Amino acid sequence: MRFTxxxxxxxxxxxxxxxxxxxxSRTGRGDWxxxxxxxxxxxxxxxxxxxxxxxxxxxxMPARVSxxxxxxxxxxxxxxxxxxDSVLSSGLExxxxxxIVKMDEWECLASYVLATYxxxxxxxKMIDEVSMRFGHEIVDGVRSFxxxxxxxxxxxxxxxxxxxxxxxxYLHSISRCIDRAEIRRLKLxxxxxxxxxxxxxxxxxxxxxxxxxxxxFGKLDxxxxxxxxxxxxxxxFNLEGSYKTIRGFATQRWGDFAGYAxxxxxxxxxxxxxxxxxxxxxxxxxxx
DNA sequence: GCCCAGGAGTGTG
DNA sequence: CACACTCATGGG
Length: 288
Known about the structure:
- It is built from 14 helices and 7 strands.
- It is α+β, with helices and mostly antiparallel strands.
- It has 3 domains: about 1-70, TATA-Binding Protein, CATH 3.30.310.40; about 75-95 and about 220-288, Endonuclease Iii, domain 2 (Orthogonal Bundle); about 105-215, Hypothetical protein, domain 2 (Endonuclease III, domain 1, Orthogonal Bundle), CATH 1.10.340.
- Strand 2 and strand 3 (about 30-35) form a beta hairpin.
- It binds a DNA duplex through helix 5, helix 8, helix 11 and helix 12.
Protein backbone atom coordinates (compact mmCIF):
# COMPACT_ATOMS: atom_id res chain seq x y z
CA MET A 1 0.00 0.00 0.00
CA ARG A 2 1.05 3.54 -0.63
CA PHE A 3 -0.24 6.85 0.70
CA THR A 4 0.90 10.31 1.65
CA UNK A 5 0.70 12.22 4.91
CA UNK A 6 1.04 15.82 5.84
CA UNK A 7 3.43 16.00 8.76
CA UNK A 8 5.14 19.33 9.08
CA UNK A 9 7.82 20.19 9.79
CA UNK A 10 9.71 16.91 9.37
CA UNK A 11 13.35 16.14 8.63
CA UNK A 12 13.78 12.40 8.24
CA UNK A 13 17.58 12.55 8.49
CA UNK A 14 17.43 14.32 11.83
CA UNK A 15 14.54 12.28 13.19
CA UNK A 16 15.65 8.81 12.17
CA UNK A 17 19.36 9.43 11.62
CA UNK A 18 21.15 8.80 14.86
CA UNK A 19 20.21 8.26 18.42
CA UNK A 20 16.49 7.80 18.81
CA UNK A 21 15.80 4.68 16.76
CA UNK A 22 18.30 2.04 15.76
CA UNK A 23 16.60 0.00 13.06
CA UNK A 24 16.03 2.63 10.39
CA SER A 25 18.41 3.09 7.48
CA ARG A 26 18.77 5.64 4.73
CA THR A 27 18.60 4.52 1.12
CA GLY A 28 20.65 6.03 -1.66
CA ARG A 29 17.79 8.27 -2.73
CA GLY A 30 17.34 9.73 0.72
CA ASP A 31 14.35 7.59 1.64
CA TRP A 32 14.25 5.88 5.00
CA UNK A 33 13.28 2.28 5.54
CA UNK A 34 12.50 0.55 8.80
CA UNK A 35 10.00 -1.58 10.67
CA UNK A 36 6.84 -0.40 12.38
CA UNK A 37 5.56 -3.40 14.27
CA UNK A 38 5.53 -6.30 11.83
CA UNK A 39 5.49 -4.06 8.77
CA UNK A 40 8.44 -2.79 6.81
CA UNK A 41 7.85 0.83 5.90
CA UNK A 42 9.56 3.21 3.50
CA UNK A 43 9.34 6.95 4.08
CA UNK A 44 10.19 9.51 1.42
CA UNK A 45 9.05 12.77 -0.14
CA UNK A 46 6.69 13.29 -3.03
CA UNK A 47 5.63 16.78 -4.08
CA UNK A 48 6.25 18.14 -0.62
CA UNK A 49 4.25 15.47 1.12
CA UNK A 50 5.51 12.54 3.15
CA UNK A 51 5.16 9.44 1.03
CA UNK A 52 4.67 6.15 2.85
CA UNK A 53 4.84 2.71 1.32
CA UNK A 54 4.34 -0.55 3.17
CA UNK A 55 3.25 -4.05 2.37
CA UNK A 56 -0.53 -4.45 2.31
CA UNK A 57 -2.62 -5.88 5.10
CA UNK A 58 -2.59 -3.17 7.71
CA UNK A 59 -5.42 -0.73 7.21
CA UNK A 60 -4.40 1.38 10.19
CA MET A 61 -0.96 2.11 8.79
CA PRO A 62 -1.54 5.84 8.23
CA ALA A 63 -2.49 6.19 11.88
CA ARG A 64 0.50 4.12 12.98
CA VAL A 65 2.95 6.20 10.97
CA SER A 66 1.37 9.38 12.27
CA UNK A 67 1.70 8.13 15.81
CA UNK A 68 5.29 6.98 15.24
CA UNK A 69 6.28 10.43 14.00
CA UNK A 70 4.17 12.17 16.62
CA UNK A 71 2.28 14.07 13.96
CA UNK A 72 0.15 15.82 16.57
CA UNK A 73 3.14 17.50 18.22
CA UNK A 74 2.92 21.22 17.58
CA UNK A 75 6.56 21.86 16.76
CA UNK A 76 5.99 25.55 16.21
CA UNK A 77 4.54 25.92 19.69
CA UNK A 78 7.32 23.84 21.21
CA UNK A 79 10.04 25.82 19.46
CA UNK A 80 8.32 29.09 20.21
CA UNK A 81 8.25 28.21 23.89
CA UNK A 82 11.85 27.01 23.97
CA UNK A 83 13.04 30.06 22.03
CA UNK A 84 12.27 32.03 25.16
CA ASP A 85 15.38 30.35 26.56
CA SER A 86 18.36 32.64 26.01
CA VAL A 87 20.72 29.75 25.31
CA LEU A 88 18.52 27.66 23.03
CA SER A 89 16.97 30.51 21.06
CA SER A 90 19.82 31.06 18.61
CA GLY A 91 20.05 27.57 17.09
CA LEU A 92 16.56 26.19 17.29
CA GLU A 93 15.37 26.62 13.71
CA UNK A 94 18.15 24.35 12.51
CA UNK A 95 16.37 21.51 14.26
CA UNK A 96 12.84 22.41 13.28
CA UNK A 97 12.30 19.14 11.44
CA UNK A 98 13.56 17.00 14.29
CA UNK A 99 10.66 15.18 15.87
CA ILE A 100 10.72 12.91 18.86
CA VAL A 101 9.52 9.48 17.81
CA LYS A 102 6.99 7.27 19.53
CA MET A 103 8.42 3.77 19.57
CA ASP A 104 6.68 0.60 20.67
CA GLU A 105 7.01 0.55 24.47
CA TRP A 106 8.56 -2.89 24.78
CA GLU A 107 10.92 -2.50 21.85
CA CYS A 108 12.07 0.82 23.29
CA LEU A 109 12.66 -0.66 26.73
CA ALA A 110 14.64 -3.59 25.39
CA SER A 111 16.58 -1.42 22.94
CA TYR A 112 17.73 1.07 25.55
CA VAL A 113 18.69 -1.65 28.00
CA LEU A 114 20.97 -2.90 25.24
CA ALA A 115 22.15 0.64 24.52
CA THR A 116 24.03 1.03 27.80
CA TYR A 117 27.70 1.81 27.39
CA UNK A 118 27.80 1.07 23.67
CA UNK A 119 28.07 3.32 20.62
CA UNK A 120 25.24 3.66 18.14
CA UNK A 121 26.60 1.41 15.36
CA UNK A 122 27.09 -1.34 17.87
CA UNK A 123 23.64 -0.83 19.40
CA UNK A 124 22.12 -1.19 15.95
CA LYS A 125 24.07 -4.37 15.40
CA MET A 126 23.00 -5.89 18.71
CA ILE A 127 19.32 -5.13 18.05
CA ASP A 128 19.55 -6.46 14.52
CA GLU A 129 21.18 -9.66 15.72
CA VAL A 130 18.55 -10.22 18.42
CA SER A 131 15.82 -9.61 15.84
CA MET A 132 17.35 -11.99 13.30
CA ARG A 133 17.58 -14.79 15.85
CA PHE A 134 14.35 -14.37 17.78
CA GLY A 135 12.02 -12.10 15.79
CA HIS A 136 9.52 -13.01 13.09
CA GLU A 137 10.23 -12.55 9.41
CA ILE A 138 8.28 -9.66 7.95
CA VAL A 139 9.90 -9.59 4.51
CA ASP A 140 12.91 -11.43 3.09
CA GLY A 141 15.86 -10.86 5.36
CA VAL A 142 14.06 -8.54 7.77
CA ARG A 143 12.58 -9.60 11.06
CA SER A 144 10.45 -7.84 13.64
CA PHE A 145 11.87 -7.09 17.04
CA UNK A 146 11.02 -10.09 19.25
CA UNK A 147 8.22 -9.81 21.78
CA UNK A 148 8.84 -10.62 25.46
CA UNK A 149 7.42 -14.10 24.95
CA UNK A 150 9.64 -14.61 21.88
CA UNK A 151 12.66 -13.79 24.03
CA UNK A 152 11.58 -16.15 26.78
CA UNK A 153 12.66 -18.92 24.43
CA UNK A 154 16.22 -17.62 24.58
CA UNK A 155 18.85 -18.58 27.13
CA UNK A 156 21.37 -16.06 28.43
CA UNK A 157 24.04 -17.87 26.45
CA UNK A 158 22.09 -17.60 23.20
CA UNK A 159 21.57 -13.90 23.83
CA UNK A 160 25.26 -13.46 24.47
CA UNK A 161 25.93 -14.90 21.05
CA UNK A 162 24.17 -11.81 19.70
CA UNK A 163 27.08 -9.79 21.02
CA UNK A 164 25.22 -8.37 23.99
CA UNK A 165 27.96 -8.98 26.56
CA UNK A 166 26.84 -8.31 30.13
CA UNK A 167 23.55 -6.92 28.79
CA UNK A 168 22.36 -10.44 27.93
CA UNK A 169 21.33 -11.23 31.48
CA TYR A 170 19.33 -7.99 31.72
CA LEU A 171 17.40 -8.63 28.51
CA HIS A 172 16.82 -12.21 29.59
CA SER A 173 15.49 -11.05 32.92
CA ILE A 174 13.23 -8.20 31.79
CA SER A 175 11.62 -10.37 29.12
CA ARG A 176 10.32 -12.39 32.07
CA CYS A 177 9.17 -9.32 34.03
CA ILE A 178 7.21 -7.71 31.19
CA ASP A 179 4.16 -8.75 29.19
CA ARG A 180 1.37 -6.98 27.36
CA ALA A 181 -0.68 -6.52 30.51
CA GLU A 182 2.23 -4.92 32.33
CA ILE A 183 2.85 -2.52 29.42
CA ARG A 184 -0.84 -1.64 29.44
CA ARG A 185 -0.63 -0.85 33.14
CA LEU A 186 2.52 1.24 32.78
CA LYS A 187 0.91 3.28 29.99
CA LEU A 188 -1.58 4.66 32.51
CA UNK A 189 1.13 6.20 34.71
CA UNK A 190 2.42 9.72 34.61
CA UNK A 191 6.12 10.28 34.04
CA UNK A 192 7.29 10.33 37.69
CA UNK A 193 5.54 7.09 38.58
CA UNK A 194 6.45 5.42 35.29
CA UNK A 195 10.10 6.33 35.81
CA UNK A 196 10.13 4.89 39.32
CA UNK A 197 8.55 1.64 38.18
CA UNK A 198 10.84 1.22 35.19
CA UNK A 199 13.84 1.62 37.47
CA UNK A 200 12.82 -1.46 39.43
CA UNK A 201 13.67 -3.55 36.37
CA UNK A 202 17.15 -5.06 36.19
CA UNK A 203 19.43 -3.11 33.89
CA UNK A 204 17.22 -0.02 34.01
CA UNK A 205 18.73 2.96 35.79
CA UNK A 206 17.85 6.63 35.61
CA UNK A 207 19.06 7.23 32.09
CA UNK A 208 17.41 4.20 30.52
CA UNK A 209 14.18 4.91 32.41
CA UNK A 210 14.16 8.43 31.01
CA UNK A 211 14.84 7.29 27.43
CA UNK A 212 12.04 4.73 27.67
CA UNK A 213 9.69 7.29 29.20
CA UNK A 214 10.44 9.72 26.38
CA UNK A 215 10.76 7.57 23.26
CA UNK A 216 8.57 4.64 24.30
CA PHE A 217 5.84 6.12 26.46
CA GLY A 218 5.82 9.58 24.95
CA LYS A 219 6.54 11.51 28.14
CA LEU A 220 7.84 14.81 26.77
CA ASP A 221 8.82 16.00 30.23
CA UNK A 222 11.49 13.29 30.53
CA UNK A 223 15.11 14.42 30.14
CA UNK A 224 17.61 11.60 29.55
CA UNK A 225 21.18 12.51 30.49
CA UNK A 226 24.04 10.70 28.76
CA UNK A 227 27.65 11.78 28.28
CA UNK A 228 26.68 14.10 25.42
CA UNK A 229 24.05 15.90 27.48
CA UNK A 230 26.47 16.17 30.38
CA UNK A 231 28.92 17.81 28.02
CA UNK A 232 26.32 20.15 26.59
CA UNK A 233 25.02 21.23 29.99
CA UNK A 234 28.55 21.80 31.25
CA UNK A 235 29.62 23.75 28.17
CA UNK A 236 26.50 25.85 27.69
CA PHE A 237 25.34 26.37 31.26
CA ASN A 238 28.53 25.79 33.24
CA LEU A 239 26.67 23.24 35.32
CA GLU A 240 28.09 19.93 36.46
CA GLY A 241 26.70 17.58 39.02
CA SER A 242 24.77 14.42 39.68
CA TYR A 243 22.02 13.09 37.45
CA LYS A 244 19.49 14.48 39.91
CA THR A 245 21.06 17.92 39.82
CA ILE A 246 21.08 18.17 36.04
CA ARG A 247 17.61 16.70 35.67
CA GLY A 248 16.27 19.17 38.22
CA PHE A 249 17.84 22.01 36.28
CA ALA A 250 16.32 20.79 33.02
CA THR A 251 12.89 20.23 34.52
CA GLN A 252 12.81 23.69 36.02
CA ARG A 253 14.10 25.33 32.86
CA TRP A 254 12.17 23.48 30.17
CA GLY A 255 9.31 21.81 31.99
CA ASP A 256 6.84 19.97 29.79
CA PHE A 257 9.13 20.24 26.73
CA ALA A 258 12.34 19.07 28.42
CA GLY A 259 12.42 16.07 26.09
CA TYR A 260 12.60 18.25 23.00
CA ALA A 261 15.20 20.50 24.61
CA UNK A 262 17.21 17.38 25.34
CA UNK A 263 17.09 16.24 21.72
CA UNK A 264 18.20 19.64 20.47
CA UNK A 265 21.09 19.70 22.93
CA UNK A 266 22.02 16.12 22.09
CA UNK A 267 22.14 16.64 18.33
CA UNK A 268 23.90 19.95 18.64
CA UNK A 269 26.59 18.51 20.87
CA UNK A 270 27.16 15.54 18.59
CA UNK A 271 27.29 17.76 15.54
CA UNK A 272 29.77 19.96 17.33
CA UNK A 273 32.02 16.97 17.92
CA UNK A 274 32.01 16.42 14.17
CA UNK A 275 32.79 20.15 13.88
CA UNK A 276 29.69 20.85 11.83
CA UNK A 277 27.58 22.13 14.67
CA UNK A 278 25.64 25.32 14.97
CA UNK A 279 26.39 26.35 18.51
CA UNK A 280 23.76 27.50 20.86
CA UNK A 281 24.93 30.61 22.64
CA UNK A 282 26.31 30.17 26.08
CA UNK A 283 24.55 31.33 29.14
CA UNK A 284 25.15 35.09 29.48
CA UNK A 285 26.19 35.00 33.11
CA UNK A 286 28.80 32.35 32.32
CA UNK A 287 30.57 34.08 29.49
CA UNK A 288 33.99 35.61 29.92
C1' DG B 1 46.85 -1.06 20.48
C1' DC B 2 44.15 2.71 22.24
C1' DC B 3 40.00 5.15 23.58
C1' DC B 4 35.31 5.47 23.91
C1' DA B 5 30.46 4.31 24.07
C1' DG B 6 22.44 7.26 24.65
C1' DG B 7 25.21 3.00 32.05
C1' DA B 8 23.91 -0.06 35.77
C1' DG B 9 24.95 -2.54 39.93
C1' DT B 10 27.50 -2.97 43.93
C1' DG B 11 30.44 -1.77 47.49
C1' DT B 12 32.84 1.71 50.35
C1' DG B 13 33.91 6.18 52.81
C1' DC C 1 25.47 11.90 49.62
C1' DA C 2 30.01 10.97 46.62
C1' DC C 3 33.22 8.08 44.46
C1' DA C 4 35.46 3.63 42.70
C1' DC C 5 35.24 -0.44 40.62
C1' DT C 6 33.46 -4.07 37.59
C1' DC C 7 30.87 -5.73 33.82
C1' DA C 8 31.93 -7.47 28.14
C1' DT C 9 32.82 -5.87 23.78
C1' DG C 10 32.89 -3.74 19.22
C1' DG C 11 33.52 0.55 16.48
C1' DG C 12 36.44 4.41 15.15
